[in-house]
Protein: Phosphoribosyl-AMP cyclohydrolase
Amino acid sequence: MKKILTKKKINSIQKMWGDGIVEIGNTYVNNGDYQSVAEDFVKKFYGYQEGIVLFKPTLASVEQFRDTFEKALSYFISGNPKYTEDQGFAIRPWVKVKFRNAGIIIIKNHAVAMGNYYFTDKTGYEVKVEYTFGYFLNQNGELKINLHHSSLPYTSA
Structure:
């Protein structure tokens, strides 16, 4: 049976991605093996094993583009001396992540979604971030990210 992309599947993977970010932070706070959780997260959601991933994290200005598994992992949990700007985005920790899609384009086994996602920390502070994610179905029918661009909204000076 051939897998078909739908908006419902995109919404589902976005929810799982957000829950995964929260899980990394929870594991970190509870002194668990957050590195393994983060490694599994990157492997589950990103297509580094299948090919090129274009990843521009929100809070990166020196190593702006994360084209390898190692670079992506460092962004999410820090600790890699090669990438000293990384503060560990996923270990803040966040308690909630919600997506608000402006739109989703689906063409065969590829999709692009754009909108805002909101990260809430344990104090209740919410950060609004703009995103564009590209998705593809791999040979196993798994939905993976091959494009992730995040940025903070423009503010006038």
